[in-house]
């Protein structure tokens, strides 16, 4: 039954940490070197706390997020570049740890999808408009004709379709 | 006994809903006035039965009847009355009941206000609403029963307590507002389906649809804003939007609703874009359904969560397939019966509204794809996991929404049918100059490196000044005597004024978002009472800490004195609360002090070897976000009060309701 009692907001709880006592990035984890610490904070914002939902490790209250924050700082202290530090975590935890998935065949639809929608919409618009213009033009031409001309046009169209029907 | 009565009323409501669905729609099909006329009274009965059921659940909460499983799991005798009541919708089962209650209330409202609709359209609209009710009531009655009892001999004497995070006024009001928004789109949906059945969409139809869309969108705006405000002051680090799936679930119908609002204008004024508008109405409601259900089924966290609760999951999935698939199928076979009218040049008011729709749809698609991609990925790759987070949304959504933001002031300057871009842009010179000045000011004096942020703020100024300029030009400022201008301003149609306010609100949100995220200042440290911390020109002295006791919680409270330039500005208190029955989830009460330039935000954490963890933030102009949302809501209300919306109200002037005849 516990699993069933889930609400829109209850599920928020899952996202915002499981209620462990720690609480986003803590002063005791921070590096003394402000430049390094700033880099760590920036990188943290793009790394996912694995047990939370779509929450980055910088904001997460979960213990695991704390471990990841400390691990990341250790890598930076050891002299890793930003990319190396991130790659180190990806090697250990998989691409799942990245909040911004890498562009590739497996994420092609993700990255191009919205723009494909835009393209399809734009094309649809173009063709709808062209069709509407043609309809309007046809209506206008018809309106410009006198009664006599209309009659002749009808006859012409009719005879043409008849000849078309006769030719095998 | 009252609980059983509520349960019984719920089953009766289901029967009534089935009746409401079948009889009027059949009546409309065969043209029987008698059968069609039962729709309105049935909608009334349905509402009363659902209300009875809901009130009996509320009663169970108020008297703390812990023999009801739902009450036991979510309430506590020590809870203040307000949170006993809001606890009703602080859980899955109760909130679904609230959903249906709001739905039946909308049904009643439609029944009451639709007296002058064509009889068959009215019967069909109410019938479709009834069908939506059937789906939800069936779900509640079969797999999500809030009235389930615990056998009396085993009934506990104390409840487990409401989730502490929910014990907050903003979050108490958040679900009802959000639901009023979601459910509001069901009315638009019902109109769309009824139109497909009738094979007719005209300006009168659009005039009916627009207020309902507007109402739904307004509630959704208020609900989302409240949720984001709550996150801001409750979560303890000053964030206000996270692009998490739950937020996205409410954001998608909001975006689709914006598109729908704009395309309905074209149907109403120009009798064009009908087929597209009907589709948008279906999409908005579908996104609302997906929003409600995907969040509730737990499927968003993982496909596995779905399997934990297969009964509900399958039901939810079937409902989605039935409503979304069914309506799209109906659309596919019937849409061509709706004639399109009114052509227009690409550069025209219609053209601008179409571009709005195009970009809005693509932006909605970005949110949709990003939210559901991990799910689909997991299902397709057989358990492969991938994360799509804030950086993705900021990038894709940002790219798609920027051109739209730039176009906001331009659209209203264009005339219907055919317009010239150059004069429209010329009329916006004030806005352009203001935007450039502000952007240059930011780069030159505030922050040399914040080039992108300066551009963003420029866009915000462009929207705000553009909206005001449009309104003043409409009032003929500098072209007519001041008296005339004032009179024109005072008698400006609510729709126009509403548009100005809402667009202005968008500009404010843009500015608030960019300024607060670019120049947020923070200080995270440990401190002992007596120490003084400095941030953003403030001197914040940690005065003392103590333990305080609330009705159903104990809290560690810390007080801070705030000084600036040697002047004491006041004291902020920050708390960490632990609630009865839920010891594992401490919540934070942030201390906030508001200034015209932003908020000072103080939160406390745990104790460590160097004292207590203190987080202080200065969030510049973050209140623009909520101010902007308020402008949008007020704009919506202003537009709703427009006399022209009130069909049937005699017009003051002898001019027909729509000034521009439909072509």
Report the structural category of chain B.
alpha+beta
Coarse morphology of chain B: globular
pLDDT < 50 stretches of chain B:
648-663
Q: Main beta sheet of chain B, described?
A: 5 strands, antiparallel
The spatial strand order of the largest sheet of chain B comes to 2-3-4-5-6
Broad structural category of chain A: mainly alpha
Give the mean pLDDT of chain A. 75
Q: List the secondary-structure elements of chain B in sequence, H or E.
A: HHHHHHHHHHHHHHHHHHHHEEEEEEEEEH
Assembly state = heterodimer
Q: Radius of gyration of chain B, rounded? A: 27 Å
In CATH, what is the homologous superfamily of the largest domain in chain A?
Cytochrome C biogenesis protein
Element pattern of chain A in H and E:
HHHHHH
Average pLDDT, all residues of chain B: 86
Number of helices of chain A: 6
Number of strand segments of chain B: 9
Short description:
Chain A is an all-alpha fold and 168 residues long. Chain A has helices at 10-15, 34-44, 63-77, 82-93, 108-144, 147-166. In chain B, the strands form 2 sheets. Chain B has a 5-stranded antiparallel beta sheet with strand order 2-3-4-5-6, with no helix packed on it. Chain B has a 4-stranded antiparallel beta sheet with strand order 1-9-8-7, covered by helices on one side.
Describe this structure in words.
The complex is a heterodimer of chains A (168) and B (663). Chain A has 168 residues and is mainly α. Helices cover 60% and strands 0% of the residues of chain A. Chain A has six helices and no strands. Chain A has helices at 10-15, 34-44, 63-77, 82-93, 108-144, 147-166. Chain A starts with 9 loop residues before the first helix and ends with a helix. Mean pLDDT of chain A is 75; it is low at 1-22. Chain B is α+β, with helices and mostly antiparallel strands and 663 residues long. Chain B has four domains: 1-162, no CATH class; 202-335 and 346-415, no CATH class; 416-519 and 626-645, no CATH class; 521-620. Helix content of chain B is 62%, strand content 12%. Chain B is built from 21 helices and nine strands. Chain B has a five-stranded antiparallel sheet, with no helix packed on it. A four-stranded antiparallel sheet of chain B has the order 1-9-8-7, covered by helices on one side. In chain B, helix 8 (169-198) packs across helix 10 and helix 10 (245-270) packs antiparallel against helix 14. At the A-B interface, helix 1 and helix 5 of A face helix 4, helix 8, helix 14, helix 15 and strand 1 of B.
């Amino acid at each position: 039954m516990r699993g069933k009692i889930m609400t829109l907001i209850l599920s928020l709880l899952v996202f915002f940490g499981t209620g462990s006592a720690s609480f986003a990035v803590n002063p005791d984890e921070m590096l003394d070197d402000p430049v390094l610490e700033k880099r760590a904070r920036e990188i943290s914002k793009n790394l996912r706390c694995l047990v939370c939902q779509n929450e980055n490790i910088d904001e997460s209250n979960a213990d695991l997020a704390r471990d990841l924050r400390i691990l990341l700082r250790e890598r930076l202290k050891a002299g890793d570049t930003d990319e190396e530090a991130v790659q180190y975590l990806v090697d250990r935890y998989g691409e799942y740890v990245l909040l911004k998935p890498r562009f590739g065949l497996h994420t092609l639809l993700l990255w191009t999808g919205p723009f494909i929608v835009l393209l399809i919409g734009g094309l649809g618009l173009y063709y709808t408009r062209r069709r509407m213009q043609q309809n309007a033009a046809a209506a206008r031409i018809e309106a410009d004709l006198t009664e006599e001309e209309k009659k002749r046009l009808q006859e012409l169209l009719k005879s043409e379709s008849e000849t078309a029907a006769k030719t095998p | 006994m009252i609980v059983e009565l509520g349960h019984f009323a719920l089953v009766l409501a289901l029967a009534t809903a089935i009746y409401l669905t079948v009889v009027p729609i059949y009546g409309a099909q065969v043209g029987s006035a008698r059968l069609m006329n039962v729709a309105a009274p049935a909608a009334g009965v349905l509402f009363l039965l659902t209300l009875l059921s809901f009130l009996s659940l509320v009663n169970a909460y108020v008297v703390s009847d812990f023999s009801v499983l739902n009450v036991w799991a979510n309430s506590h005798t020590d809870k203040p009355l307000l949170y006993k009541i809001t606890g009703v919708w602080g859980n899955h089962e109760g909130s679904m009941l609230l959903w249906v209650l709001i739905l039946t209330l909308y049904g009643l409202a439609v029944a009451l206000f639709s007296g002058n609709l064509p009889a068959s359209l009215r019967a069909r609209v109410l019938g479709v609403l009834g069908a939506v009710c059937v789906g939800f009531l069936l779900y509640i009655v079969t797999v999500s029963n809030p009235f389930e009892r615990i056998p009396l001999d085993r009934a506990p004497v104390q409840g487990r307590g409401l989730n502490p995070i929910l014990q907050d006024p903003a979050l108490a009001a958040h679900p009802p507002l959000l639901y009023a928004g979601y459910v509001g789109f069901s009315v638009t949906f019902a109109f769309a389906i009824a139109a497909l059945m009738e094979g007719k969409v005209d300006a009168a139809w659009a005039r009916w649809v627009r207020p309902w869309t507007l109402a739904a969108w307004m509630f959704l705006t208020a609900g989302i804003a409240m949720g984001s405000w709550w996150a801001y002051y409750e979560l303890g680090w000053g964030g206000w939007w996270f692009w998490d799936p739950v937020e996205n679930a409410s954001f998608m119908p909001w975006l689709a609703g914006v598109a729908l609002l704009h395309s309905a204008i074209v149907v109403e004024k120009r009798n064009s874009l009908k087929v597209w508008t009907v589709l948008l109405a279906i999409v908005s409601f579908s996104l609302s359904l997906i929003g409600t259900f995907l969040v509730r089924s737990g499927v968003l966290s993982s496909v596995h969560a779905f399997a934990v609760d297969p009964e509900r999951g399958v039901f939810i999935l079937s409902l989605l397939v039935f409503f979304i698939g069914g309506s799209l199928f109906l659309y596919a076979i019937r849409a061509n019966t709706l004639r399109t009218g009114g052509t227009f040049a690409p550069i025209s008011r219609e053209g601008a509204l179409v571009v709005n729709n195009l970009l809005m749809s693509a932006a909605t698609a970005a949110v949709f794809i990003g939210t559901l991609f991990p799910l689909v990925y997991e299902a397709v790759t057989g358990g492969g996991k991938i994360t799509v987070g804030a950086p993705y949304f900021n990038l894709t959504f940002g790219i798609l929404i920027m051109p739209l933001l730039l176009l906001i002031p331009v659209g209203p300057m264009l005339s219907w049918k055919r317009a010239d871009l150059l004069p429209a842009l010329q009329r916006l010179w004030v806005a352009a100059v203001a935007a450039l000045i502000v952007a240059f000011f930011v780069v030159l004096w505030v922050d040399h490196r914040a080039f992108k942020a300066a551009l963003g703020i420029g866009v915000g100024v462009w929207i705000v000044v553009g909206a005001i300029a449009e309104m003043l030009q409409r009032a003929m400022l500098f072209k007519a005597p001041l008296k005339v201008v004032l009179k024109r301003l005072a008698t400006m149609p609510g729709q126009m004024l509403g548009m100005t306010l809402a667009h202005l609100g968008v500009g404010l949100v843009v500015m608030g978002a960019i300024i607060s995220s670019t120049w947020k200042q923070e200080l995270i440290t440990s401190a002992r009472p007596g120490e003084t911390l400095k941030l953003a020109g403030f001197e914040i002295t940690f005065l003392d800490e103590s333990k305080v006791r609330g009705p159903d919680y104990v809290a560690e409270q810390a007080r801070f004195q705030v000084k600036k330039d040697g002047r004491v500005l006041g004291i902020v208190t920050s708390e960490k609360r632990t609630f009865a029955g839920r010891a594992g989830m401490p919540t934070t009460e942030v201390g906030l002090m508001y200034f015209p330039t932003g908020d000072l935000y103080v939160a406390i954490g745990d104790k460590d070897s160097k004292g207590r963890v203190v987080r202080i933030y200065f969030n510049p102009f973050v209140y623009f976000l909520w101010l902007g949302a308020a402008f949008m809501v007020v704009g919506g209300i202003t537009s709703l009060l427009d006399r022209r919306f009130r069909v049937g109200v005699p017009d003051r002037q002898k001019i027909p309701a729509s000034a521009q005849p439909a072509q």
